[in-house]
Design goal:
A six-stranded mixed sheet has the order 16-17-15-18-19-20, sandwiched between helices. It has 15 helices and 20 strands. By secondary structure, the protein is an alpha+beta fold. Helix content is 44%, strand content 21%. The chain has helices spanning 48-60, 72-81, 140-148, 160-168, 179-189, 218-227, 230-241, 249-265, 267-308, 318-326, 329-332, 348-355, 357-374, 398-414, 438-454; strands at 25-28, 33-34, 38-41, 44-46, 63-66, 86-90, 100-102, 107-109, 111-116, 132-136, 153-157, 174-178, 194-199, 204-211, 338-345, 380-385, 388-394, 425-432, 459-461, 466-468. The longest helix is centred in the middle third of the chain and has 42 residues, at 267-308. α8 runs antiparallel to α9.
Length: 469
C-alpha cells in the first residue's frame, strides 16, 4: 500500500500543491459500485460524477487521475490517509468534515426505503420497528440513523447492490439507499420481488470533497460548477437516467446528413433551400429541447411533492415539518402567537385488526380530508406517523386552538367512514412561548395528548385542562 501522506497516482510533487499555484494533476477516489452516480468499470471511472468531472477539467485545465479502490469504505480511508486528494460525489457529515472540505451542492437526489412486496408501506425510519435495516458501510445514512434512530437494528452492507440482494434473500427486512441507484440495480438484476416502501431520511446533497491540504482548490471548482449550463446538466441526466426522447430523432438526424450531402452536390443551385431546411430542423430540435426541459421540471416538482407529503393522505409529512419548522424556524415562525395540536385516532389498531389495513387506510384518508376542510387556511396539517397528526396554528391563541379541536370532534361524530365504523380522537394542545424551540412545544403537546388518553380518550387536553365529550 502507498505510504500515507503521499499522492502515488499523481504526476506532481506535493510541494507544488501550494495556494496560488495551478496543479497539473489531481488524484481522486470514487465509490466503485454506485451506478448511475459513479463506479469503476474495467479500471475506468464512469457515471454521473465522471461526466461532471470532465466538464470541470475542460473549464479549469486541471487533469484528474483515478486512484482505484475496492469499496467506498476504502475510498474514505484513502482520503483520510492522503492517498487521494479529492472525491467528486458525496454528502457532508460531521465525521467527514474532520478531514474534508466541501464544494457547493451540484446534484440532489432522494433516498428511499426498499422492502419485499409482502411488507407494508413504512413511510419512514420511525415505522421500521424491530425489522433489520441494511445500509452500505461508510454511507452518510449510517451516521444519520445512528444519531437519530439509535435503537434500529442495522446490518452494514458492502454496497447498495449487496444491501438490496440481502433484502431479496431475507437476510434483512429493509434497505435504504438513493432512489436513482436503487431503481437501476432493481432493473439490472431483475429483483422484481422488491418495492419502494417509504422515504429514507434526508435527500442526498452531493458535492466535491477535498482533503484539507488541497482545499485551496475549492474556489475555482465552485466557479467551474456554477459555469455548467442547464443544457449540459440535462444531457448528463438523460444519459444516465434514460429520459425518453422522441424516437424518430435519430431518423431525422440521418435525413439531415443525407440532405446536407445532397446539398454539397447542388450547392450553388439549392443554397437557399438547404439553409431554410436547416432552420426548420433547428427549430424542431429547440422545441423538443423545451419539451424535455418542461418534462424534467414537472418530474422535479413531483419529486419535491413526494419528498414533502405523505403518499396515503396527501398531507405534509414529518420530513416537511422538520425542514419547515425545526431547521428553518426563524423564517417560518414569527413572534405572533402560535399553537400546536397533536391528535391521535382512538383505538385505531382495532380497525386494522377487524377490517384489514385497506379499510384502515381508507379511514385515514377520510380523516385527513376532514382535517384539511376544517382547519384555517394558514394552518399546517402533517401526518406525524401511523394514526397521529400534527396541526400548526399560526396567529392562534390556546383558546382558539381548543375551539378548533371541538369543531373537529363534532365533525367526527357526523362523518361516515363506511363499514359501520365510527372513530374518535384524543387531542393535546400547547402554545409556543417566546424563544421556545418548536420541538419543546411539541413535547408539551405530546404530554397533554398522553394525559387525554390516560383520562379515557375522546378528550381535549392542554397543559392544565381536560374536557371529555
Amino acid at each position: 500500500m502507498p505510504k500515507a501522506g503521499a499522492f502515488p497516482y499523481s504526476n506532481i510533487e506535493p510541494q507544488l500543491l501550494e495556494p496560488n499555484s495551478k496543479p497539473v494533476d489531481i488524484s481522486y477516489c470514487v465509490d466503485p459500485d454506485w451506478l448511475p452516480y459513479e463506479a469503476i468499470v474495467e479500471g475506468k471511472h464512469v457515471g454521473i460524477s465522471s461526466d461532471y468531472l470532465q466538464l470541470i477539467s475542460q473549464s479549469t485545465g486541471y487533469t484528474f487521475t483515478l486512484v482505484p479502490t475496492q469499496s467506498w469504505s476504502e475510498s474514505l480511508a484513502y482520503l483520510k490517509q492522503g492517498l487521494c486528494m479529492m472525491t467528486p460525489f458525496l454528502n457532508i457529515t460531521p465525521d467527514r468534515e474532520l478531514f474534508l472540505q466541501f464544494s457547493d451542492i451540484y446534484f440532489e437526489a432522494p433516498n428511499v426505503l426498499v422492502s419485499l412486496k409482502s411488507e407494508p408501506f413504512l413511510q419512514g425510519f420511525g415505522n421500521i420497528g424491530d425489522r433489520v435495516l441494511a445500509i452500505p458501510s461508510g454511507y452518510r445514512l449510517v451516521e444519520y440513523v445512528q444519531r437519530h434512530y439509535p435503537k434500529l437494528n442495522l446490518k452494514l452492507a458492502s454496497s447498495e447492490k449487496a444491501g438490496l440482494e440481502s433484502v431479496a434473500r431475507g437476510e434483512a427486512d429493509v434497505f435504504v439507499g438513493s432512489m436513482f441507484s436503487v431503481n437501476a440495480y432493481i432493473q439490472q438484476t431483475d429483483l422484481t420481488e422488491l418495492k419502494i416502501a417509504g422515504w429514507g431520511g434526508p435527500a442526498d446533497e452531493l458535492r466535491f470533497g477535498f482533503t484539507n491540504e488541497a482545499a485551496y482548490l475549492l474556489p475555482l471548482i465552485n466557479q467551474a460548477l456554477a459555469d455548467i449550463t442547464e443544457t449540459q446538466r440535462i444531457n448528463i441526466y438523460n444519459k444516465w437516467h434514460n429520459v425518453s426522447i422522441i424516437e424518430d430523432i435519430d431518423y431525422e438526424m440521418a435525413a439531415r446528413v443525407l440532405l446536407l450531402l445532397g446539398g454539397c452536390i447542388f450547392l450553388l443551385l439549392y443554397r437557399n433551400y438547404c439553409i431554410n431546411q436547416y432552420s426548420i430542423e433547428l427549430e424542431q430540435h429547440n422545441k423538443q429541447l423545451d419539451a424535455l426541459r418542461l418534462s424534467l421540471e414537472q418530474k422535479n416538482h413531483q419529486l419535491d411533492f413526494l419528498a414533502k407529503h405523505d403518499p396515503l393522505t396527501q398531507l405534509y409529512n414529518r420530513h416537511y415539518f422538520h425542514s419547515h419548522f425545526v431547521d428553518n424556524a426563524s423564517e417560518n415562525l414569527d413572534d405572533s402567537p402560535t399553537s400546536l395540536i397533536i391528535m391521535d385516532a382512538d383505538h385505531f389498531k382495532l380497525i386494522n385488526d377487524n377490517f384489514g389495513h385497506s379499510v384502515g387506510d381508507h379511514v385515514l384518508s377520510v380523516l385527513a380530508q376532514l382535517l384539511k376542510t376544517t382547519v384555517h387556511n394558514s394552518d399546517v396539517v402533517a401526518r406525524w406517523g401511523g394514526e397521529e397528526f400534527i396541526i400548526v396554528c399560526p396567529n392562534v391563541e390556546l383558546d382558539e386552538a381548543y375551539a378548533l379541536c371541538q369543531r373537529l370532534a363534532a365533525k367526527l361524530q357526523q362523518t361516515d367512514f363506511g363499514a359501520g365504523i365510527n372513530i374518535t380522537c384524543s387531542y393535546g394542545i400547547a402554545k409556543l412561548t417566546s424563544g421556545e424551540p418548536i420541538l419543546a412545544c411539541l413535547e408539551r403537546a405530546d404530554k397533554a395528548l398522553y394525559r387525554a388518553k390516560v383520562a379515557g380518550r375522546n378528550q381535549i387536553c392542554t397543559d392544565t385542562h381536560v374536557v371529555e365529550f
